[in-house]
Design brief:
The complex is a heterodimer of chains A (315) and B (325).
Chain A: H1 2-31, H2 34-39, H3 45-54, H4 61-74, H5 87-122, H6 127-141, H7 144-158, H8 174-208, H9 211-218, H10 223-260, H11 266-275, H12 279-307, H13 309-312
Helix pairs in contact in A: 1-12, 5-6, 5-8, 5-10, 6-8, 7-8, 7-10, 8-10, 9-10, 10-12, 11-12
Chain B: E1 6-15, E2 18-28, E3 33-37, H1 44-52, E4 59-67, E5 70-71, H2 77-83, E6 88-91, H3 95-98, H4 105-117, H5 121-134, H6 140-143, H7 153-165, E7 171-175, H8 183-200, E8 203-207, H9 211-217, E9 220-225, E10 228-234, H10 235-240, H11 245-253, E11 305-306, E12 310-311
Parallel strand pairs in B: 3-8, 3-9, 6-7, 7-8
Antiparallel strand pairs in B: 1-2, 1-4, 4-5, 9-10, 10-12, 11-12
The chains are: A mainly alpha (315), B alpha/beta (325).
Bound molecules: adenosine-5'-diphosphate, iron/sulfur cluster and magnesium ion.
Chain lengths: 315, 325
């Protein structure tokens, strides 16, 4: 297990370094002359020069890169060119929207996908199982964007039950905040659940055909007991792995859903700053999200090692 | 109903439109031991799984399987489950895949004991350690705490046997229990199985390719071919003086124990040809294409006839083996 953990950690840090280099070069190469864009057409050469020097944009790229990474490691994410606001402050101000959206989206997706996938596996070859499989297929084919628009049209515009967009902060009216999140969360989770339920179904089917489930039955478990007491514990391994892979999907979906429902979350903040050529803000925020995704993946990997005694007991 | 440990009557197993087991009947008295032999594909495993009610999805059994005062084929899954592991039990071929990889072996066995006897956690675990010791496992207290992958094949199978026998079943089915094991440990595992079955007074249905094992362990033997029993009777008589040409071929071609491939698929040298697949079974006697004695009569299915020993053949051979047919 120790070696497994060390390998995962080495991979984690290696991937972080590669990701940071990629983000930095892509944003800097695509960013053009940042100072000129930020200050606008009418800016004087002196003003541009001053901004360039102030932010050290004239230094060689490797120096800027290490400066940026060094700052990140100290918790300094840099600041906006225009307003001088700290990136950390900007990010934190958006978390109350994005974090509940992403986490409850994932949680609801799991709550839907697990029973659905198990049901589909147990009823394979029957109409009910086929219906569930069809739902998954449709869900996978529907982009998150469309799911959001359809939900918004049906429950927001036509039925008028819930807001179709916009945001009232938690501090102003928590109930309104939750109401603004319902449709976005449901749209996101329905699509994720469709994908996840397919994996759950496959994992359960695979496990239920294993010899050890037959053994469990041969010593007295009913089909359901064997599924619950032996099958699910084994099916958890592939499901956990897929969950890790779905985190990236989740972030992508969150970006789209924030846009569809005009939620002032992280994604909207990043897009606005991309348009404004705020390279430091974009670079640091994107890096933060990548770190978040990779930490989740690391946790998933470690959980996998812990769940599987074949890995846990390996010396 | 039936005083036998198991009484199988006209068992048929359908796979798709085909019959993989085609009317098998046999009985094993309490404490009796029957060997079930035959080449791969002859229907031994499906027969065994039918008795356990554990046929793969899509396969169905008909006929009667009398055991413990009931016809097992008529039981609900819940009532059948309550008998599995308690009154009848099964040992599978590959112990590594048959044990739950994510649970300690001791806990797996203990949960069977708790399920069927209502014993508490600690009492059950103490029984498991005793069972492990009976199965001659070294340091039983430690070994029951291992996960399957940490044990050797021989150790895994001994624990599998301990699990199957933990509740003193009336009938134990062993489906090629040593085929997947290292040759060096096969004899020891069989010896332990035999001793444990003896001690419990259980009946044994022993499926194997190894005719000497049947001769050593069993009182009766049934020879299967093409989904039917072609010969059945007391081991000593059948082996000394086989009536069915297939039985005779099997005995004449019995290879040394260490020449049987791990999957049991050794080609039999004195019987030409192969077991036909289900969809290409010939009309009448299934053995006809490979039989040196076949006549037109054999295009009709020969009935399994006789007294204590029966053979399904229109032209039974006679005279002890070695003599010219
Ligand atoms: N799950 C299944 N579906 C369809 N046919 C099967 C299945 N399992 C076994 N069979 C067929 O049934 C026949 C008997 O198989 P089996 O009982 O496993 O033979 P044995 O144990 O004697 O080697 C074989 O022809 C095999 O191909
Ligand atoms: S019935 Fe005919 S074909 Fe079949 S074993 Fe007997 S002699 Fe051979
Ligand atoms: Mg078999």
């Amino acid at each position: 297990m120790i070696r497994y953990i060390l390998r995962r950690l080495a991979f984690f840090f290696g991937a972080l370094i590669v990701a940071s280099i990629l983000i930095f070069t892509m944003i800097r190469v695509a960013g053009g002359n940042v100072a000129a864009v930020v200050l606008g057409k009418d800016a004087s050469a002196e003003a541009i020069e001053a901004l360039v020097v102030e932010y050290g944009l004239d230094r060689p790229l490797p120096v800027q890169y290490f400066d940026w990474i060094g700052g990140m490691l100290r918790g300094d994410l840099g600041q906006s060119f225009r307003t001088g606001e700290s990136v950390a402050g900007l990010v934190v101000s958006r978390l109350p929207v994005s974090v509940p959206l992403a986490l409850s989206g994932l949680l609801l997706a799991m709550l839907i996908a697990l029973p659905l996938g198990i049901y589909a596996a147990r009823n394979i070859g029957k109409p009910s199982g086929a219906a569930v499989a069809l739902f998954s297929q449709i869900g996978i084919a529907v982009p998150v964007f469309w799911a959001g628009v359809l939900m918004s049209l049906l429950f927001g515009v036509k039925l008028g039950w819930l807001p179709t967009g916009g945001w009232i902060p938690w501090s102003v009216d928590p109930v309104a905040a939750i109401r603004s999140l319902v449709l976005p969360v449901v749209s996101l989770s329905v699509v994720l659940a469709a994908i996840l339920s397919r994996y759950v179904r496959t994992a359960v089917l695979d496990v239920m055909n294993q010899d050890y489930v037959r053994t469990a039955r041969a010593v007295g478990m009913t089909r359901t007991e064997a599924l619950i007491q032996v099958g699910l514990r084994n099916a958890a391994l592939p499901i956990v792995t897929v969950l890790g892979l779905q985190v990236a999907e989740l972030i992508g979906g969150t970006v789209i859903i924030e846009t569809v429902f005009s939620l002032p979350g992280l994604a909207r903040m990043i897009l606005a700053n991309v348009a404004a050529r705020e390279v430091i803000v974009v670079q640091s925020t994107v890096m933060l999200i990548i770190v978040f995704v990779m930490v989740l993946n690391l946790i998933v990997d470690l959980a996998y090692g812990f769940l599987d005694p074949r890995i846990r007991t390996a010396s | 109903m039936s005083e036998q440990a198991i009484d199988v009557r006209d068992l048929v197993v359908r796979a798709g439109g085909l019959r993989a087991v085609r009317g098998v009947s046999f009985a094993i008295p309490p404490g009796g031991r029957m060997g079930l032999v035959g080449e791969s594909g002859s229907g031994k495993t499906l027969t065994a799984l039918s008795l356990m009610g554990l046929l793969p999805a899509g396969l169905g059994a008909t006929g009667r399987i009398l055991h413990d005062g009931a016809d097992l084929l008529t039981l609900s899954d819940r009532r059948f489950s309550n008998r599995r592991g308690r009154t009848l039990s099964m040992i599978f071929q590959d112990p590594l895949s048959a044990l739950n990889p994510v649970q300690r072996v001791g806990e797996q066995i203990a949960s069977v004991i708790r399920r069927h006897t209502g014993a508490g956690r600690q009492a059950a675990m103490a029984q498991v350690v005793d069972l492990a010791a009976q199965m001659k496992l070294p340091r039983p207290e430690e070994i029951v705490r291992a996960y399957p992958h940490q044990l050797s094949g021989g150790q895994q199978q001994r624990l599998m046997i301990a699990m199957a026998l933990s509740c003193y079943p009336q009938l134990i089915i062993a489906d090629e229990p040593t085929t997947a094991l290292d040759v060096t440990v096969q004899r020891e595992v069989l010896r332990l199985l035999s001793a444990a079955v003896d001690e419990r007074g259980s009946a044994l249905l022993m499926i194997t390719h190894d005719l000497p094992v049947v001769a050593a362990m069993c009182e009766t033997v049934a020879v299967m071919y093409g989904g039917t029993i072609v010969e059945i009777g007391p081991v000593a008589e059948v082996f000394r003086d086989p009536r069915h040409p297939y039985t005779r071929g099997l005995l004449d071609s019995q290879p040394d124990i260490d020449r049987i491939a791990p999957d049991g698929s050794s080609r039999l040298e004195s019987i030409p040809g192969m077991v036909p697949p289900l969809h290409a079974l010939p009309k009448g006697c299934a053995f006809r294409p490979r039989c040196a004695f076949a006549t037109e009569l054999c295009e009709r299915m020969p009935p399994l006839e006789g007294g204590a020993r029966k053979a399904a053949c229109w032209h039974p051979v006679s005279g002890p083996r070695g003599a010219a047919p």
